Structure formats: C-alpha cells, structure tokens
C-alpha cells in the first residue's frame, strides 16, 4: 500500500515539475527566440527603407511594419488554443459577412507597389513572419506537443494494427474457404 502511494506521489510530483519547467522555463526561452527572429525580420524591413528602396511613409511599408510590431508585442498571447479559436472565428465571420482575411488590406497595399523587387521583398517578409508564428505556437504549446506525440505514436502503431487486422482477415478467409470446401462431406 505504501509503495503505491509512493509511486502515485512521485508521478504527481514529476508531472508538476515537468509542467513548472515547461511553463516557467522553456516556454519563456521559446518566446524570446521567437521575438528575436521577428526582430531580425523587422531589421530586414528597415534595411529596405534605409537603402532607399521604399519610403518609410509608404502605406505598404507602414502596414507591414505594424504587422510585425503587433506580432512582437502580442507574441506572449499566442497559444495553440487562441490560434485555433481565432481561425475558427475568422472562418465563421468570413462565411457570415463575405469578408476576407484581416491581412487582405496589407497585401493589397503591397500589390499596389510599382517596384517588383520591393514587392517581392515585402511579400517575403510577410511570409517569413507568417511561417514563424505557427512554428512558435507548435513549439510553445504543451497541449500541441502532447497531441503531436499521441498522433506520432498512433501513426507508428497503426501499420502494426493494420497488419494484424489483415492477418486476421486472411486467417478468417482461409477458415471460411476450408469450411466451404468440406461442407458437402458432412455426415448425413
């Protein structure tokens, strides 16, 4: 009885320790890493203006800058659950109101630029930020990590289960054929 209590308490303690390490240690490091990557992308945007390729007052430049700055500012709010809920709400709103994504005005402003090289660079910057966000959410969400682990385990186990099901079906087919083949020999 005491060994069961010891094992249960050690499991609970380990779970709490892992959660605390995750919540107060690793998650904050991942947030800092995400923000550092965003600062590097923003520096690329500033370099476009510094080189004189685009004006700092251009609407496309301002909208991309605001997009990056808001992402940096609210990065600590981005979680897997908030991401899933926002995607769901945006999809629901777009079906109801025939509205496009919130980033549509930014892309229109970028598309309105005359210089194709600057347009390509700004789209590349937007795409880089858009790629960083789901990677950060995936890395920083304990729920997503556990879900991914379960998915990977089930995906690796499913071929084994499929083979065992196939073996069972083959065995059943052989037995059914054997029963059918010898059914006319039944004693009368």
Helix share bin: over 70%
In DSSP terms (H or I, runs of 4 or more residues), the helix count works out at: 6
Number of strands: 0
Described by the principal axes of the CA atoms, the overall outline is: elongated
Order of helices and strands: HHHHHH
Give the terminus-to-terminus CA distance. Answer: 63 Å
Going by helix content, strand content and strand pairing, the class is: mainly alpha
**Main sheet specs:** none
Domain module tally: 2
Task: Please compute the radius of gyration using only Cα atoms.
Answer: 28 Å
Mean pLDDT: 80
Binned strand content: under 5%
Low-confidence stretches at least 5 residues in length (pLDDT < 50)?
none
Kindly describe this structure.
The protein has helices at residues 2-50, 59-73, 80-97, 104-111, 116-140, 142-181. The chain is an all-alpha fold. It folds into two domains: 27-140, no CATH class; 146-188. Helix 1 (2-50) packs antiparallel against helix 2 (59-73), helix 1 runs antiparallel to helix 5 (116-140) and helix 2 packs parallel to helix 5. The chain is elongated, with a radius of gyration of 28 Å. The model has no long low-confidence stretch (mean pLDDT 80).
């Amino acid at each position: 009885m005491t060994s069961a209590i010891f094992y249960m308490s050690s499991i609970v303690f380990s779970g709490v320790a892992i959660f605390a390490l995750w919540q107060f240690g690793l998650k904050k490091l991942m947030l800092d890493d995400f923000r550092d990557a965003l600062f590097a992308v923003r520096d690329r945007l500033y370099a476009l203006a510094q080189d004189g390729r685009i004006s700092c007052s251009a609407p496309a430049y301002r909208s991309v800058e605001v997009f990056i700055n808001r992402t940096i500012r609210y990065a600590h709010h981005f979680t897997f659950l908030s991401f899933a809920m926002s995607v769901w709400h945006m999809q629901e709103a777009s079906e109801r109101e025939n509205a496009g994504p919130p980033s549509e005005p930014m892309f229109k402003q970028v598309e309105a630029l005359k210089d194709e090289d600057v347009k390509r660079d700004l789209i590349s910057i937007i795409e880089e930020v858009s790629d960083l966000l789901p990677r950060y959410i995936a890395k920083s969400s304990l729920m997503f990590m556990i879900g991914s682990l379960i998915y990977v385990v089930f995906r690796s186990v499913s071929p084994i289960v499929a083979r065992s099901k196939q073996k069972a079906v083959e065995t059943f087919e052989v037995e059914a054929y054997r029963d059918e083949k010898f059914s006319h020999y039944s004693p009368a």
